[in-house]
Amino acid sequence: MDNIQEGSYVLLFHTSRKKWLTKVVKGKKMHTHLGIIDLDLVIDLPYGTRIKTTEDRDIYLLKPTIYDFVMKSERKTQIVYPKDMGYIASRTGLSNGSIVLEVGTGSGALTTFMAGIVKPNGHVYTYDVRPEFIEVAKRNIEKSGLEKFVTINQYDIKDGIDLKDADIAVVDLGDPWTVVEPVYDCLKGSGCFVAICPTMNQIEKLATALKESNFTDIECSEIIVRNIEAREGMTRPSFRMIGHTAYLVFARKVYPK
């Protein structure tokens, strides 16, 4: 049985909209609008246990997944959402052992997701020029316990980097077309390129640059998810949903004739 230990993380779950991710520390009390949760009382309980707040409201003690760490991550920038992460993983073949170049660490949400997949034999090498972003990303990655599978660099890869034969390159910049050439040099043959772009103008410029730089299998996509509220006799689509988050641009490296 997997029990909660002091220093571990727990997801305090009431409903899908009322949940809190916290580290279990002796003497710590969570003050919520549903009442107070005394974390001393959860130590040594198995994950999945139901407890009560001081207001007699039910709270379930769930073991956090990578999804929970991503959605509850500290952030200074817009994060890449799980709906996009899943397609990135399947489209690029991200798996245990993959070597990943990430350009634009941001808050480290996507970094965390990728590190959770490439472990224990792969690694994510991530680059950002903003020190304030790097500090936030470090905290988020350490919270998930995946820091040994990630190397964070404060550096602009437009000046070139030594990384070679990467399986996948992920670019999350406002001007991704400016790093197509250095990223090409880092990828192995047939390696996957993916960029996260907020606007149509960006994907148009990027697709043009990729075609001119020996990339093929170019695909531009948008992932939309609609939740369904399933209740007996009243099932219907949810009125609330995450709309546009990003356009995804994929490509594969090939060699010139």
The structural domain count equals: 2
CATH topology description of the largest domain = Rossmann fold
State the CATH superfamily name of the largest domain. Vaccinia Virus protein VP39
Structural class: alpha/beta
CATH architecture of the largest domain: 3-Layer(aba) Sandwich
Task: Note the total helix count.
Answer: 6
Distance between the termini: 58 Å
Largest sheet: 7 strands, mixed
Uncertain residue ranges: none
CATH class of the largest domain: Alpha Beta
Sequence of secondary-structure elements: EEEEEEHHEHEHEEHEHEEEE
Kindly report the average pLDDT value: 92
Q: For the largest sheet, list the strands in their spatial order.
A: 9-8-7-10-11-15-12
The count of β-strands is: 15
What is the helical fraction, as a range of percent? 10-25%
Radius of gyration: 21 Å
Taken from the alpha-carbon principal axes, the silhouette is: globular
What portion of residues belong to β-strands? 25-35%
Describe what you observe in this structure.
The chain is α/β, with parallel strands linked by helices and 257 residues long. It has two domains: 9-64, Roll (Vcp-like ATPase, Chain A, domain 2); 68-253, 3-Layer(aba) Sandwich (Rossmann fold), CATH 3.40.50. The chain contains six helices and 15 strands. The protein has helices at residues 66-71, 82-92, 109-118, 131-143, 180-186, 200-211; strands at residues 9-15, 18-23, 29-32, 35-38, 50-52, 58-62, 99-103, 123-128, 150-154, 166-171, 187-197, 215-221, 228-229, 236-237, 247-253. The strands form four sheets. The protein has a seven-stranded mixed sheet with strand order 9-8-7-10-11-15-12, sandwiched between helices. A four-stranded antiparallel sheet has the order 2-1-6-5, with no helix packed on it. A two-stranded antiparallel ribbon has the order 3-4. The longest helix has 13 residues, at 131-143. The radius of gyration is 21 Å and the shape is globular.
